[in-house]
Design brief:
- There is one protein chain.
- By secondary structure, this protein is of the alpha+beta class.
- The protein is about 35% helix and about 25% strand.
- The chain has 36 helices and 43 strands.
Length: about 1150
């Protein structure tokens, strides 16, 4: 009574004696109402009562009741279809005394199957009536379906073709392998759309089809292949059409009784009926005692089934849960089980009894039917033919993608709308309506053509078939229209005719010689260009033998062999031949030859050869001339009295002339294909890389210097070169060719000049310091006449200017020419502070004529806020920025000079920009302004004075830090200089390792100097010890400098002379801001006054900390070469 499936029991008279709760729930009749009633009369539908009595009589006789469906009438009048399994009930004597009926409600399942069958039948009729050939091929390549259109197209009847191999029967021989491959891939699930298929009809006619393949799935895997196409011999597009899939409906459930099994509380099998044995493959004896879940249920379902059985053991009814049972052979059997607790005589639960229904076949059938219907819908939706459907009211129910593409109306726009009024042109509505009405009445129409107009107003001619659409009961529910757009076909035919005429005209008037021959070698085509080249008119050439009468005797055998090869079906390209003209001249042609075939025949039906050529007579002459010129140029390069070499984009040497080989000592064969870096200096490598890059970007590559290493010599050869790109035959840049001159001697002369200037400047510096100091001292002396003040002031001003020039010259020498003695300190520099100090200084500074550096009409702006601290030489950075800002102020009369800066953490650098609205720089002079002793205006009447060293020094300082200076300028509008300084210096120097040896005695107060660098505090203290007469310790280091004489003179002057300095100007260091010490009262300059005149961390300020009772000691230090001057 507690079973979840309906259970009925009848006695020998057919009266009900069992009626469980599931039966009550199903029919609406309770147990008390039904007991004693005739099962057939009370609940079986009238139209099945006779069949039901006969089935129950068989069961009462002990016979099997196999898969009998009982149609019950519920209390509400509803029809329920029950799949019945019968168990005979026997008395003590073994006689059948009744039947126990176990049921499963299959009402919904049967309804779904009927709908699927109706859809399949509908699609089957549609496919048969389609106006496109549709074929079905099984896995062995045999034809299983051959629709009416295929019959019309090929002439082969359906009965003739079923069971025959498609490829071997109708596919053209030249396409059989290809089509077999496409079908094979389709069977594996790889569909193919729009491939050419050539078939041979019964009449021997070759027809060309455009086909699509669709894999038909059976049971979830690949089964047959459906081929849908259209005839493109006469029609541009034919359609993929729906194929009858009714025969592919899934195989329904057969001969299955209800499995009944039981398990105890431990999950072991205690009951196992015959159906369970048949379904699982295990006999009752084999199953009893084994764990049901662990040994018979699929692993993925075990936890769920175990929980269901446990719930049943806990007293809960478990209706309708699915179980996948593993058959003995490894296959799966799907059961729908209802589980109820099994109790002993005392009412204790001792296990579970499960009554089930085998729905493996049913489940498979539902899946296959759904798959077939889905395939059919997909075929319709994706068919390469326009398909529409309407209901009995003429409203649209189907509108596939192809029709959307043609009409420009989407499916959403058209569904539910009347076809005639919405889509068909007014002139054709009556006729089209008649065709559709006939189809609704069962009279189908084929190949009816009518025009449609798209959303944008374009006209399309459609050829379609109207097929009746029927429901599951066979009644007509609408019309399916399968069409074909023949508009393009009409245009294609017109275009082909026009193209044929154009092609004939093109061949005749082509600028290349075109001629053709027959299989016997006689000329059949001879265009005007061929006549022009050969001197033979078309009338004279036609019908004559090409090889025998037109080809030069030296080429006849080769040409005949080529023509024989083409006549065998192969194409030949770029074949050279010599033709003899009518005047006896030799003309050379470059030909492409292709077989000429009979239209509609296979590849072997070659009827001649068509040759398209080019007259290369002049080309060959030019090529011969070019080769001679190339040889001459190669000889010229090799013997040239100048360095010429080439470098590829991979930096390997590709050219190396005799001059370079002679100078370097490296032979050409030893260096070609080796990297240029092996033969030039490291600095030159970077230059060559940049030149190669510039050449690849078409930038100029002129006047760059390169140091060439020489075999067996330390001294390199210095070359001044110009580079030009080397091009491949295709015009691609593959490297550079460098041509230049030897400037080794010029560079040596320049170096000597630079050294001479540095020596002279060095010797002038100390006397100039003396002149400045003495002129200042005399000017402030009480006995100096007033008439002498102006001359002294002029002396002082001229000497100061001369000191600036000398210092700049020495800077240039050290930064540009004497890099071996260049030393930079590594300071933690706050660039923003330096910029602020320089800007403040410039705002309050005046030039030698007493004119402010920043003019009245100019606004000096500092827009720099916060910048990171960088590693740099603070003195050199100050020098660099001072030069840039004062230079901008110098050349700006009105507007502004603006200083901005930003930090770039990604590139790890600071960028400082000095922008002005001054006179600007001409484009051709942008790089020239950075050259030493060079200015844009070099005339004698120039308006702006100076030596032209400031920008040169500034760029060298930036480069030595690992940065650079760039300039952009518009003449007459202003300039913008941008300085890039890295966060960490690239130059490796360490002034703390400058060696020092300074000795003195306490009595003589005389120091003997080996080397002294005044930039560090320790040396400052040692100098103070010299002045005060204190003994000094001996200090040694790793290396020594060569400035003993200059240092000794300075310290001797310091020891032997005393000067009382009341006021005056103190000489500035090279390139640094001028420092002015002003008097703090009578009797001399106070130490604090002079301290205030210098930056807080300047070297000079360290020196000023040396004091005595009545006077201050001022030490001026040249930070470039270590020389010093001292005034006490």
């Amino acid at each position: 009574a507690a079973a979840s499936a309906p259970v009925f029991g009848i006695d020998a008279d057919g009266r009900i004696n069992e009626w469980n709760s599931a039966a009550t729930k199903l029919t609406g009749y309770d147990r008390d109402q039904m007991l004693g009633e005739s099962l057939v009369v009370s609940v079986v539908q009238v139209d099945q009562q006779d069949a039901a009595r006969e089935a129950l009589d068989r069961a009462l006789r002990g016979l099997s009741l196999n898969r009998f469906e009982l149609h019950l009438q519920t209390r509400k009048g509803e029809r329920r279809e029950i799949l019945i399994s019968a168990l005979a009930r026997r008395g003590p004597g073994g006689d059948v005394i009744g039947v126990l009926l176990l049921g499963h409600d299959v009402t919904e399942l049967n309804s779904r199957l009927q709908r699927a069958e109706a859809n399949a039948a509908d699609f089957s009729r549609l496919m048969e009536a389609a106006n496109t050939p549709i074929l079905r091929i099984d896995s062995s390549g045999c034809i299983t379906e051959w629709n009416r259109k295929a019959v019309d197209l090929t002439g082969y009847e359906r009965s003739e073709m079923l069971g025959k191999k498609l490829v071997q029967t109708v596919v053209a021989e030249d396409q059989r392998d290809e089509v077999a491959g496409i079908i094979s891939k389709a069977l594996e699930g790889e569909e193919r759309s729009e491939f050419d298929l050539s078939i041979v009809t019964e009449a021997g006619e070759r027809r060309e089809l455009m086909m699509n393949t669709t894999a038909l799935r059976e049971g979830g895997g690949a089964g047959d292949v459906l081929l849908v196409g259209y005839d493109i011999t006469e029609v541009r597009q034919m359609h993929r059409e729906q194929k009858n899939m009714a025969d592919d409906l899934a195989r329904l459930i057969n001969n299955a009784n209800a499995p009944i099994l039981g398990v105890n509380l431990q999950g072991q099998v205690t009951e196992w009926n015959e159906k369970a044995a048949a379904l699982s493959g295990y006999t009752r004896d084999e199953a009893l005692g084994r764990h049901f879940v662990e040994e018979f249920v699929r692993e993925d379902d075990r936890s769920e089934v175990a929980q269901a059985l446990q719930d049943a053991c806990d007293g809960h009814e478990m209706p309708h849960f699915e179980v996948s049972v593993i058959h003995r052979d490894g296959s799966e059997v799907f059961l729908l089980l209802s589980a109820t607790p099994r109790k002993d005589a005392q009412g204790n639960v001792v296990g579970v009894v499960a009554v089930g229904q085998d729905f493996t076949t049913l489940r498979q059938a539902v899946f296959e039917v759904s798959s077939v219907a889905d395939d059919m819908r997909r075929i319709v939706e994706h068919a390469n033919a326009p398909i529409f459907g309407i209901d009995t009211d003429g409203n649209i129910t189907e509108w596939n993608r192809k029709l959307q593409d043609i009409s420009e109306y989407t499916q959403e726009e058209m569904m539910g709308k009347p076809l005639l009024e919405t889509f068909v042109h007014e002139e054709c509505r009556a006729e089209v309506g008649k065709v559709l009405t006939n189809a609704l009445n069962g009279v189908e129409t084929q190949n009816y053509e009518f025009p449609i107009f798209t959303k944008s107003g374009k006209r399309h001619d459609i050829l379609f078939n109207a097929t009746s659409r029927r429901g599951s009961s066979g009644n007509i529910t609408g019309v399916m229209g399968v069409g074909e757009d023949v508009s393009k076909l009409k245009r294609v035919i017109e275009d082909n005719e026009k193209a044929a005429a154009d092609l004939t005209l093109l061949i005749e008037h082509a600028s290349a010689p075109i001629f053709g021959i027959s299989t016997s070698g006689l000329i059949t085509v001879w265009n005007k260009k061929a006549s022009q080249i050969s001197g033979y008119s078309k009338e004279n050439a036609m019908g004559r033998h090409l090889v025998k009468q037109f080809i030069h005797r030296s080429h006849k055998r080769d040409v005949q062999g080529m023509l024989d090869q083409v006549l065998s079906g192969k194409e030949v390209e770029n074949f050279e031949l010599a033709m003899v003209t009518a005047t006896g001249e030799r003309r050379e042609l470059l030909l492409n030859a292709t077989p000429r075939r009979q239209p509609g025949e296979d590849e072997k039906s070659v009827i001649g050869v068509v040759c398209v050529g080019q007259d290369i007579t002049l080309l060959n002459e030019h090529r011969t001339h070019s080769e001679r010129v190339a040889d001459d140029l190669s000889q010229l390069i090799e013997t040239a009295n100048a360095p010429i070499f080439g470098v590829g984009v991979d930096m390997n040497i590709i050219e190396w002339n005799g001059w370079v080989a002679s100078k370097s000592g490296w032979r050409k064969e030893d260096v070609v294909d080796r990297n240029i870096a092996e033969f030039i200096s490291e600095r030159s490598c970077r230059i060559v890389e940049e030149v190669v890059y510039n050449a690849s970007t078409t930038q100029p590559c002129n006047n760059f210097e390169l140091e060439l290493r020489c075999a067996g010599q330390e001294k390199p050869v210095c070359l001044l070169l110009n580079a030009t790109p080397r091009l491949s035959p295709q015009g691609d840049i593959v490297g550079i060719i460098c041509v230049g001159q030897d400037i080794t001697n010029i560079k040596e002369i320049e170096l000597k000049k630079s050294n001479l200037m540095a020596t002279v400047s060095h010797e002038l510096k100390s006397p100039i310091h003396g002149i400045i100091g003495l002129s200042s001292t005399i000017a402030v002396g009480p006995e100096t006449p007033k008439s002498m003040l102006r001359p002294l002031q002029l002396i002082h001003s001229c000497a100061t200017r001369l000191l600036d020039m000398v210092s700049n010259i020495m800077d240039v020498n050290v930064l540009v020419h004497d890099k071996s003695n260049l030393r930079f300190s590594r300071d933690k520099v706050q660039v923003a502070s330096i910029i602020e100090e320089v800007v403040i200084l410039c705002r309050h500074s005046i030039d030698k004529r007493g004119v402010p550096v920043v003019k009245d009409g100019v606004n000096l702006l500092n827009q720099v806020t916060e910048l990171p601290i960088i590693e740099a030489d603070k003195h050199r950075c100050t020098q660099l920025l001072y030069n840039l800002i004062t230079n901008a102020c110098k050349f700006t009369q009105r507007g502004y000079v603006k200083v901005t800066a930003e930090a770039n953490d990604a590139k790890q650098e600071v960028m400082i920009t000095v922008e002005d609205t001054g006179i600007g720089i001409a484009p051709e002079n942008l790089e020239r302004v950075f050259e030493p002793f060079d200015q844009e205006d070099t005339s004698e009447k120039r308006h702006y004075e100076g030596l032209g060293l400031g920008l040169s020094i500034s760029r060298e300082v930036a480069i030595k830090h690992g940065g650079d200076i760039e300039v952009k300028s518009v003449q007459g509008e202003g300039s913008k200089f941008t300085v890039r300084l890295p966060y960490k210096m690239a130059v490796v120097t360490d002034i703390d390792e400058v060696p020092l040896m300074l000795t003195t005695t306490p009595t003589e107060r005389v120091a003997t100097v080996s080397s002294l660098d005044m930039r560090t505090g320790s040396q400052s203290q040692q100098l103070q010890s010299v002045i005060e007469g204190e003994p000094l310790e001996r200090v040694e280091s790793k290396k020594g400098t060569h400035e003993e004489m200059g240092l000794t003179r300075s310290l001797t002057s310091l020891m032997n002379r005393k000067f009382s300095v009341n006021s005056g100007e103190i000489g500035n260091d090279a390139g640094s801001a001028p420092s002015v010490a002003t008097s703090s009262g009578g009797g001399g300059i106070g130490t604090q006054d002079m301290l205030d005149a210098f930056p807080s961390d300047s070297v000079i300020k360290d020196m000023l900390e040396i004091e005595s009772d009545s006077s201050a000691t001022i030490v001026s230090v040249d930070e470039d070469d270590g020389s010093q001057s001292a005034l006490v």
